[in-house]
Write a structure and sequence with these properties.
about 350 residues, binds nicotinamide-adenine-dinucleotide, single chain, globular, disordered C terminus, disordered N terminus, Rossmann fold
Length: about 350
């Protein structure tokens, strides 16, 4: 049983736990690292090494928070580095990945190296040390589903190199749980949105263009339907998975159980921001036809039963919070146009 029930003495269950977050420099990982710190964890935050020595979104935190974390620069593709990183920790929350589907068409091998071999490096490290691990999957592993809502039992389809790499990583986790009794479970978020998300993702793209006062929105296809979860809810799912018992090899989806089309989403964004614009389909943003995933909608039953998890933030409130964050960043029209692709 992958469980962490706390010490029964009224301490928060995560208090004092030594937790490694990979991908802590990124959108979801940075929110998660902050939340774990607030829960009293000793957080080791892995940020991808780049020559400028920056720590992604963790550089936007206050001095106190940054000082309270053990910030590490490195790369999940390096097995020796990952083994040292994991040494002495109780739990690894593995979020590091290449995530951009369009880039996965251009450089598929790099997705295998980071998402598949990187995950195997983490699995080997926790196998050696006995630490628990939560792997991060994605709803993209289902491809265009046979039926909705999608349950965890739905077949997996490699519809893009990104989804194929995440399927391989998920299967390695399942295999390591079965073969080596590694205590690894997988969380499978559906689309997550909120402050710090890349402006290449659809919600920041729409909001940034609207806030920049554009009269014409440049988007990809408007028909695909997605199940959007606000980042605080996704993070809550990780915290619950870290504190509630999950079986080795178990998979739990994090999604709201509702979906909106991109066209409908644009309407809600326009209402939230109070700006209207015409929509133009940008061919560069449209996926190859056989690679497009038309609908993703989660059946949230298992998350509710196994984690007691339910999303709390409505689409409208999450969009308002994301728009407020974008406003704070005072995006210029030029920047928004540069990022719309
Ligand atoms: N954002 C979503 O809607 C969504 C939905 C489902 C699943 N996910 C999954 O959640 C995780 C986090 O995604 P995100 O949206 O925060 O993306 P993100 O790109 O903001 O974060 C991923 C982080 O991984 C780091 N990284 C990349 N290659 C690395 C390497 N070789 N070594 C170490 N670090 C490396 C990057 O620097 C980046 O900060 C990913 O595993 C992704 O597949 C995201």
């Amino acid at each position: 049983m992958v469980s962490d029930p706390g010490d029964g003495a009224g301490r928060a269950p995560l208090q004092g736990r030594r937790v490694v977050v990979t991908g802590a420099d990124g959108f979801i990982g940075s929110h998660l690292a902050q939340r774990l710190l607030a829960e009293g964890c000793e957080v080791t935050a892995l940020c991808l090494y780049t020559s400028d020595g920056t720590h992604g979104w963790l550089d936007a935190l206050g001095e106190d928070e940054r000082a309270a974390m053990d910030l590490r620069l490195g790369d999940v593709r390096d097995p020796g580095f990952v083994r040292d990183l994991v040494d002495g920790c109780d739990l690894v929350l593995h979020l590091a990945a290449l995530i951009a589907i369009p880039y996965s068409y251009l450089a598929p091998r790099s997705f295998v190296e980071t998402n598949v071999l990187g995950t195997q490096n983490v699995l080997e490290a926790v196998r050696a040390t006995g630490a628990r691990m939560i792997n991060t999957s994605t709803s993209e592993v289902y491809g265009t589903p046979d039926e909705v809502p999608i349950t965890e039992a739905h077949p997996l389809k490699g519809q893009s190199p990104y989804s194929a790499s995440k399927i391989a990583a998920d299967m390695l986790c399942e295999a390591y749980a079965r073969s080596f009794e590694v205590e690894v479970a997988t969380l499978r978020p559906f689309n997550t949105f909120g402050p710090r998300q890349s402006l290449r993702a659809v919600i920041p793209t729409v909001l940034a263009q609207l806030l920049a006062g554009t009269s014409r929105l440049h988007l990809g296809s408007l028909s695909p339907r997605r199940d959007f979860t606000f980042v605080d809810d996704t993070v809550e799912g990780f915290v619950r998975a870290a504190t509630v018992g999950l079986e080795p090899g178990e998979v739990v989806q994090l999604g709201t159980g509702t979906s909106v089309s991109i066209g409908e989403l644009v309407d809600v964004c326009q209402r939230v921001v109070g700006v209207e614009a015409e929509v133009t389909t940008d061919e560069e943003r449209v996926r190859p036809a056989a690679s497009e995933v038309e609908v993703l909608r989660s059946d949230p039953t298992r998350a509710s039963e196994r984690l007691g998890w339910q999303p709390r933030v409505s689409l409208e409130d999450g969009l308002a919070a994301t728009a407020a964050w974008l406003r704070e960043r005072e995006l210029s029209a030029t920047t928004a146009t540069r990022y719309h692709r």
